[in-house]
Amino acid sequence: MRYKPVRGNSASIGMMEAVLNCFTRDGALYLPEHFPVIPRAFFNNISDMNLREIGYVVANILFGDDLPSEFIKNVTDKALSYPIPFTRTDSNRFTLDLTQGPTRNYNDIGARVLAEMFKQNPNRSHFNMLVTASTGTLSAIAEAFHDIPDVTTYAIYPSGQLSHDRRDHLLRYGQSVRPVEVSGTLRDCRAMVRDLFMDHDLRGDLRLISGNSANIAILLPRVIYFFYAYAQLRRLGLPLDKVVIAIPTRNFGNLTSALIANRMGLPVSRFMAICPDGETPEFISDTRLASIRGTATAAQIYSPANHPLSTDEICISLLAERPLDPSAGHISHRGITHISPTANALKRIITK
To answer: Checking DSSP bridges between strand 86-90 and strand 30-32, what pairing results, if any?
Structure first.
């Protein structure tokens, strides 16, 4: 399958090039030229399938043109090795719990899929993984990649915006994971990383890879849990003509994955994006999308509860993150690197 930028006229590229580059020179991201449609027969049998079986079918349809089926099966079997509970909270409301992975964060799935792709590839070479966040996404990437000797992870976060438990968690992996605290905002962190990816002269021969949803190998596997949620509804024998998905979101990766799942054939009536104030994206203009805004805390954003529904709608809400269990013992913070929010400063610590 070929991948093209979401804007501009740059040429389409192959899967591995899209995974490794992520950004065009003008900062655009890559998505598939077309989204493959799931065969209808899949939905006839989906209620009898477990998470790994659903994951393999969906991943094979997404990546089967570029990767061998046996490779994809090995990846999904290992990455999808923990449960995703689906619970009924009301007569027409359900919660899909994405917090049962090793770091209690929704990004455990995407991180583990990409990590397994590295592990299964016998021809891999050294890469520098760059991931920016102020949440558990950093922990998910660090956990997934810390034992791959060919990858050094730079966990980049804005000063004062990462919880103590998450920060301490990053320091438990030794030299394979390097926490980088930036004197700026999360937007500054993202801009710094994007600038380094885009500036090919500055980037030089650094072998960089993104650990954020800009990477299609992290973004696309998230569609799996939306198909899995639909399978649970089918198993209950509920009417499925008005399914609503409520998505807690900050950088809108989960929302994008839900929309991709819909384009692949997942029957969804409408979507609700649960957004903090001032972070509603421009693409929330489709009549099937509703943005619910407010001065919500992170916990409220990641655990959407009561949102307006009609009497015949069935709502699936995502539970996307939980706090880590309290860390045991004292962790020295001498392993944290502090830098200014510039691409040059980031390059300097990578090339030390």
So the answer is: unpaired
CA distances from 327 to 102, 174, 179 (A): 14, 16, 17
Torsion, CA 143, CA 146, CA 152, CA 155, rounded to 10? 30
Beta strands in 98-239 (DSSP E): 127-132, 151-158, 177-182, 208-210
Q: What are phi and psi of 119, to 5 degrees?
A: -65, -35
pLDDT, residue 124, reads: 73
Give pLDDT tens digits for 305-340.
Answer: 556 677 789 999 888 888 887 654 455 556 899 999
Residues with Cβ within 8 Å of 123's Cβ and at least 6 positions away in sequence, in order, are: none
DSSP helix, strand, coil percent of the chain (3-state; round to 5): 40, 20, 40
Residues 6+ apart with CB under 8 A from 193: 130, 132, 156, 210, 212, 343, 346
Structure token pair of residue 20: 């490794």
Reported residue count of the chain is 352
C-alpha angle 204/209/213, rounded to 5°? 135
Instruction: For tokens 């790994």, name the residue.
Output: 52
One-letter amino acid for residue 282 of the chain? E
Q: Which helix (H) or strand (E) holds 330?
A: none
- pLDDT, tens digit, 9 for 90 and up, residues 95-150: 999 999 999 999 999 999 999 998 887 777 889 999 999 888 999 999 999 999 88
Which of 145, 196, 201 is CA-nearest to residue 175?
145
Each residue's pLDDT tens digit, 117-132: 988 877 778 899 999 9
